[in-house]
């Protein structure tokens, strides 16, 4: 199958991406330059804020579902800033005993995370490249908070598009699966190829003249290929809004959403 890549704009002069995400999510952890960059981005890509909020809504739904399945340990890879409504808020609303580790390589996201999580029990922020499985799981935060005898949920909320095929994402997921053992889970959401989105990226480049590096966007078959060794649970690999929607979710044509979601259990 022909691999699909669509460019995504990233440039230091546009503000920090993690703080732009916070702005789009309605959080407070951003600066005026980030708000300006986010607003400029939305002129070329008006659906991006909706996409970001939809992935966050999926995160909350899947965390609640996992707590209902008995999971009390969460490893959020590529977490961004742990703003209000993130994993620990959602999980602790059900069971304050849940343990959460956020992992991000962006020093800005990690710095905000340390401030936000100061004095928080059972929650940690780790600066690491989540592609390096041994570095993540060998870190002091993981050693302290993750009980190897209990199931862990690995969360990849729109993070895998930043992992190129050359970085072997399937092998990475398999390494987490083998290290965390049977009964653990992986929950992911993943952007996929969309002509309108691709046109928006091109429009952004034309408007602002920013170099656009590639972003790997995968279809359902490719995502299934990443989950070898896992059993995908109902409702399968579906669009993000179609994964166990709740009454508060409001989407027009959810089947057209350019992003897929899945929850899978390690065999």
Automatic annotation (TrEMBL):
Q: Cross-referenced CDD domains, in alphabetical order? A: AdoMet_MTases (cd02440)
Q: Which SUPFAM superfamilies match?
A: S-adenosyl-L-methionine-dependent methyltransferases
Where exactly are the transmembrane stretches of this chain?
none
Coiled coil located at which positions? none
Q: Name one Pfam family in it.
A: Methyltransf_19
Protein name, entry field: S-adenosyl methyltransferase
Species in which this protein is naturally found: Gandjariella thermophila
């Amino acid at each position: 199958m022909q691999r699909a890549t669509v460019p995504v704009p990233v440039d230091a002069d546009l503000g920090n991406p993690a703080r732009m995400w916070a702005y789009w999510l309605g959080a407070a952890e951003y600066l005026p330059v980030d708000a300006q960059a986010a607003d400029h981005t939305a002129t070329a890509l008006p659906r991006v804020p909706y996409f970001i909020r939809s992935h966050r809504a999926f995160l909350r739904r899947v965390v609640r579902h996992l707590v209902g399945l008995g999971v009390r340990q969460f490893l959020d890879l590529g977490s961004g800033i742990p703003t209000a409504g993130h994993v620990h808020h959602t999980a602790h609303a059900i069971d304050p005993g849940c343990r959460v580790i956020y992992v991000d390589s962006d020093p800005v996201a990690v710095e905000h995370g340390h401030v936000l999580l100061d004095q928080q029990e059972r929650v940690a922020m780790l600066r690491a490249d989540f592609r390096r499985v041994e570095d993540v799981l060998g870190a002091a935060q993981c050693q302290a908070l993750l009980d190897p005898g209990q199931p862990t949920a690995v969360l990849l909320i729109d993070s895998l598009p930043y992992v190129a095929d050359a970085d072997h994402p399937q092998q990475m997921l398999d390494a987490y699966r083998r290290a965390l053992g049977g009964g653990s889970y992986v929950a992911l959401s993943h952007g996929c190829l969309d002509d309108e989105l691709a046109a928006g990226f091109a429009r952004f480049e034309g408007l602002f003249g920013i170099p656009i590096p590639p972003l790997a966007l995968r279809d359902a078959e490719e995502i299934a290929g990443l989950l070898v060794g896992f059993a995908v649970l109902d409702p399968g690999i579906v669009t993000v809004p179609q994964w166990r929607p709740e009454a508060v979710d409001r989407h027009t044509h959810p089947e057209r959403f350019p992003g897929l979601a899945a929850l899978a259990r390690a065999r």
